[in-house]
Design a protein that fits this description.
Elements: H1 19-36, H2 45-51
Length: 66
């Protein structure tokens, strides 16, 4: 959060038929991802704390007719 930049930008490929289901899954996946960061060598707890690392997700409609 300090730099307001992401090391990678990925699209998970999940698709939902409604916003509620997307948000519900997004928070679960974000929590799991955050908890697994310490397994990566470059993301130890001190680095996460100092850099204010967060996991961000977005629910976005795709293929919407304009």
């Amino acid at each position: 959060m300090l730099s307001n930049s992401c090391p990678t930008s990925t699209i998970a490929g999940y698709q939902f038929s409604n916003h509620y289901d997307c948000v519900n899954a997004g928070y679960a996946i974000a929590q799991s991802t955050f908890r697994n960061l310490e397994e990566l060598e470059e993301y130890n707890r001190d680095y996460i704390e100092q850099s204010k690392i967060v996991v961000k997700f977005e629910c976005r409609e795709i293929g919407a007719k304009i």
